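Question (not urgent): is this output format expected?
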Amino acid sequence: MSGSLSGSCGRLAAGRWLQPLAMLVLVVICTPTALAQDAEESQAAPQEKPLPTFEVASNSVRRDFVALSYYKPGDVISKSEVDQALEHLRLLGWSVSDAKEVLAKIPGDKEFLIRQLRSEKGFKFMRSISKWPSAYDRLDRLTGLANGRQILIDLINDRGGHELVDYLINTDGGAAMGQMLSQTPGGGDFKKPTGKIYTVDQLIERLKESYAKTLELRKQQAEENDQP
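Got this back:
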């Protein structure tokens, strides 16, 4: 009798732990699967960020330049600055697909024109001519002429140097002089744009083309994904 009672008590005691033990077994069995699923999810490719509007993108570019202590609207820009602005666009969700092509049109930081316009007197000279859209093209062409670099230095150091740029761009006499300069060694196409991007406004106009391409590409990808 006592043995039977003892056995019953033992079974009752064991029964008290069956459910917790069963739960423990389930946890042990299921946990590796859950961990594996978590690992798979963590290794999955991150979802593509939504494309920012072009207004957001262009405002980002402008903010990058305004944040530079030496910059004022209309100033020349350089390659390292644009490279940084494009990186910020990537973080916003837009990787400019033709960034290399854009950067190829930006003057390098060490180019003669950039270094001269960013000298102490160069900043003042630059801001006196920046209102004329083709001024930087003309000065860039000028540096390719014989003695052209020295002429640019003289213009920057002369208080009335900006008047020659005004003359070259805005007068019939300047147009005639530009035609003559085009016929000198290294002066070909003196009156034509260089094709470079010198200002933030020009950069944003160029980025509009890149943005349109990105929109078209994403539209095509969305259509392909919708196909059965």
